[in-house]
Specification:
The complex is a heterodimer of chains A (167) and B (199). Chain A is α+β, with helices and mostly antiparallel strands. Chain A is built from 3 helices and 9 strands. Chain A has a 5-stranded mixed β-sheet with strand order 1-4-3-5-6, covered by helices on one side. A 4-stranded antiparallel β-sheet of chain A has the order 2-7-8-9, with no helix packed on it. Classes of the chains: A alpha+beta (167), B alpha+beta (199).
């Protein structure tokens, strides 16, 4: 929660468990050796200091800088999103801020667009919690919804441009 | 660790949690007509990343009752329990679990616990506190808690969690009873207890 992790170790798995209105932002390199995952809680920074990934507007550039430090190239990065649910509906929405999930997702998308990183897949919205997993070695992203089973969300092989690149 | 509260202030909040959860346990015992045991509560000021882990496994599916409290000090009262525990509490109250009636009974448990704890706080501090209607949710623990902490801990890097566990022996059921005050709410409570609040 409010944290981020990056890895260049193929055996690593990055996980954000129990995302509600929070958004899990995964950055994956076409090279399939670099990946990062941030757990964003709120759209924009309103405090002088903060946990590294608490706010979307800071988390996205910080996450990119961290994977670039590992050797990843910005132009090869793609983003995969999960979370941003509306956990509380109707009159209770005020508990967690009105449409907080949707506002988080919009802030993440706009921060990514500013950096020129395309969003290739997203499991967002709805009213259920989610867990997102990034398998670094395979650049594979999967998501599990509350009460559901883990399903693949993104994998480089399914995209034609990656297949061309692989040759 | 970044925290605005010192040991003494946390002790005071813990004492408040202790009195609140004690009152809540008595009210629950009366409602259910069976003994309710109360474990010593904790007051934790934790970095956001650790706050979730302190409450439980973020991936675990839980039944939860969320009771927002408005008025002079804003906070959220949160009850967390297992699906099995939700079922046995419903059985104890003679209603069908996972039905509209069952959910409304769990909401009522949240209401009774929350309102009695909040009533005790109001009495101790002289603050006007207004519990709002409860909300019953079945989801991942992390999704429920993090979504609430996004609101209560918006301005800070740590979360204040007052945590007590209640055990209903007849139903073999353990409940987590959590208070998540907003920063303003905690300062207001501390102010009334004779502290300056956070610096």
């Amino acid at each position: 929660m409010g944290e981020l992790a990056v890895s260049a170790t193929p055996e690593d798995e990055l996980v954000s468990m129990g995302l509600g209105s929070c958004v899990g932002v995964a950055l994956v390199d076409h090279d399939r050796t670099f990946a990062g995952l941030a757990h964003v809680m709120l759209p924009s920074a309103n405090a002088a200091y903060s946990a590294p990934a608490k706010f979307a507007d800071r988390a996205v550039p910080t996450l990119l800088a961290c994977v670039e430090r590992l050797g990843a190239q910005r132009e090869r990065m793609v983003a995969v999103l999960a979370g941003g649910a509306q956990m509380f509906t109707g009159a209770k929405a005020g508990v967690a801020g009105l449409d907080l999930g949707a506002r988080n997702e919009a802030a993440v998308r706009s921060a990514l667009a500013e950096l020129g990183i395309p969003v290739r897949a997203a499991a967002t919205g709805g009213d259920r919690g989610r867990t997102v997993r990034v398998r670094v070695g395979e650049a594979r992203v999967s998501v599990k919804e509350a009460g559901g089973v883990e399903v693949p969300l993104w994998h480089p092989h399914v995209h034609a441009d990656d297949l061309v690149e692989a040759q | 660790m970044i925290t605005r509260y010192d040991e003494q202030q946390l002790d005071a909040l813990c004492e408040l949690a202790s009195i609140g959860s004690g009152t809540a346990a008595t009210a629950l015992a009366q409602m259910l007509g069976c003994p309710v045991e109360l474990a010593v509560p904790r007051a934790l000021a934790l970095p956001l990343a650790d706050a979730l882990d302190a409450v439980g496994e973020p991936d675990a599916m839980v039944a939860s009752v969320v009771l927002p409290v408005g008025g002079d000090a804003e906070m959220v009262v949160l009850l967390l329990f297992s699906y099995r525990c939700a079922e046995s509490l419903c059985e104890l109250l003679g209603v069908e679990p996972r039905s509209e009636l069952g959910d409304s009974a769990l909401g009522e448990i949240g209401n009774v616990l929350g309102a009695s704890a909040v009533g005790a706080f109001a009495q101790m501090t002289g603050l006007a506190l207004e519990p709002q209607p409860p909300h019953v949710l079945y989801d991942m623990l992390g999704a429920v808690v993090a979504s609430l902490l996004s609101a209560t801990a918006a301005e800070l890097d740590f979360a204040l969690v007052l945590d007590a566990s209640l055990r209903v022996e007849t139903a073999e059921c353990g409940l987590s009873f959590l208070l998540l005050p907003t920063v303003g709410g905690a300062d207001e409570l501390l102010g009334r207890l004779g502290f300056e609040g956070g610096e």
